[in-house]
Specification:
The protein is α/β, with parallel strands linked by helices. Helices cover about 35% and strands about 15% of the residues. The chain contains 16 helices and 13 strands.
């Protein structure tokens, strides 16, 4: 069951907003209290965003989640027909079938619904994980847009071992891009971005997302300047710092487990530098295990799953909470096993993967809906002729979170009302 809390009134009965830490052994039905809290928030819309903002005093940027009819900039991203007729062709190239990429692309398509480029009710998010190829195939079975075209033959997904960089389909998609057949390309992930941008002939206008470190990877020049006329990225230099701080403020753990391969990519995908920074500023004891695979080959997936579960058994008894980065051991196929261990060890968890992992039982994650609307607006401006490099790349927003209530109840936690109030998605 999913509760969407985006549209709520501004006043409510007085509710206790104090943080209630875990109290194992409490005979009261905590799940009942949580459901009552959600009911009150859903019905009356308690306005407690200020208490959430206080968590990040340095990140007080205000933003809105809806496109208002009075928005003076609406014309810059409202839909229009392609000059000369036809539809804008958009290609999608991604590193692999990670849940994060599915969430990012889904959010972009939903944002395009809000901006009018895609017809309403055509992008349906399934309760179970699906792939971006299935997502694109799904919308192509419908009359989904008068303006844009996402086609299965303009989609490509790498495997983590990079062997299919010479794949005929990738070469075909790249050549079509170089020949100017596409009006825009959406790049998802570090590997895909490397493979596309290393081709010096490539100049197709491009929207980049889901890259851990666009600047460090050499894709863009700086936060405010891509350095390539055809390229724009979404860059939030402190997003993981804010996320870890939020997790810490909610749970108040003194020790945190983090599992990652000790390689350049392994550290990027687990946001290790940011986790270490928050741990140092709050006196948190980090317990680390590096005996895992970040990017296993297709033949190594099951080995990667077993290695991750073994690492959890080594780390879990020593910590009060777990931070889940992006790892080969956290594929959708293995995630239920990971969640079972988290529950067995009574560990609250935070995922970098977002709502897809929260649906499967991770306690808390970040919703991608806000970034989807941001990207949809940028894509609209690109299609209407603006130079990508002139668009703002800086995306610093307060995190909207996803919460799994069932997991919260199993762990014996009462979440603060202000955290629930700020949630974008709540699952049972």
């Amino acid at each position: 069951m999913e509760y969407n809390l985006l549209h709520q009134k501004k006043h409510c009965f007085s509710l206790n907003t104090e943080h209630v830490k875990a109290k194992r052994g409490n005979k009261m039905n905590k799940f009942t209290k949580l459901l009552f809290t959600v009911f009150c928030v859903f019905l009356f819309g308690c306005n407690s965003e200020d208490s959430i903002k206080s968590i990040f005093k340095e990140d007080s940027l205000k933003f809105q989640t809806e496109i208002k009819k009075t928005d003076k900039t609406k014309d810059s991203f409202s839909p229009e027909q392609k000059l000369g007729g036809g539809k804008y062709k958009i290609a999608v190239i991604q590193s692999d079938d990670y849940p994060e990429y599915y969430e990012v692309l889904t959010a972009i398509l939903q944002g395009m619904q809000l901006t009018g480029w895609i017809k309403e009710n055509n992008v349906v998010v399934k309760d179970h994980y699906t792939s971006n190829r299935e997502l694109i195939n799904g919308i192509n079975g419908k009359d989904y847009s008068d303006y844009v075209e996402f086609s299965p033959d303009t989609f490509f997904s790498f495997r983590a071992d990079e062997n299919n960089a010479a794949d005929p389909q990738f070469k075909k998609v790249m050549q079509r891009a170089i020949d100017g057949e596409f009006d825009a390309v959406i790049l998802l992930g570090t590997l895909a971005s490397h493979k596309v941008l290393e081709n010096k002939e490539y100049r197709t206008v491009t929207l980049m997302d889901a890259v851990s470190d666009p600047i460090g990877s050499g894709f863009v020049e700086s936060i405010d300047k891509s350095g390539k006329d055809f390229l724009t990225a979404r860059i939030d230099p402190n997003q993981y710092i804010r996320q870890v701080r939020l997790f810490y403020k909610v749970i108040g753990f003194k020790s945190l487990g983090i599992i990652y391969e000790n390689s350049e990519n392994g550290r990027w995908y687990a946001a290790v530098d940011d986790v270490e920074k928050v741990a140092e500023e709050n006196g948190i004891d980090l317990v680390v295990d590096n005996d895992v695979m970040t990017e296993p080959t297709q033949q190594q997936y099951h080995q990667a799953y077993d290695m991750y579960l073994s690492a959890m058994d080594r780390v879990s008894p020593k910590v009060e909470a777990m931070f889940l980065g992006i790892s080969g051991g956290l594929e959708p196929e293995n995630l239920p096993n990971v969640v079972n261990k988290l529950i067995d060890y009574k560990l609250p968890s935070f995922t970098m993967e977002g709502a897809q992992a929260v649906k499967k039982g991770v306690m808390i994650g970040v919703s991608g809906k806000e970034s989807g609307l941001y990207n949809a607006k940028k894509l609209a401006r690109i299609l209407k002729g603006e130079t990508p490099s002139t668009l703002d790349q800086r995306y610093e927003k307060m995190p909207k979170i996803s919460i799994n209530l069932k997991t919260t109840e199993k762990l014996g936690y009462d979440l603060p009302i202000d955290i629930i109030r700020s949630a974008d998605e709540i699952y049972q």
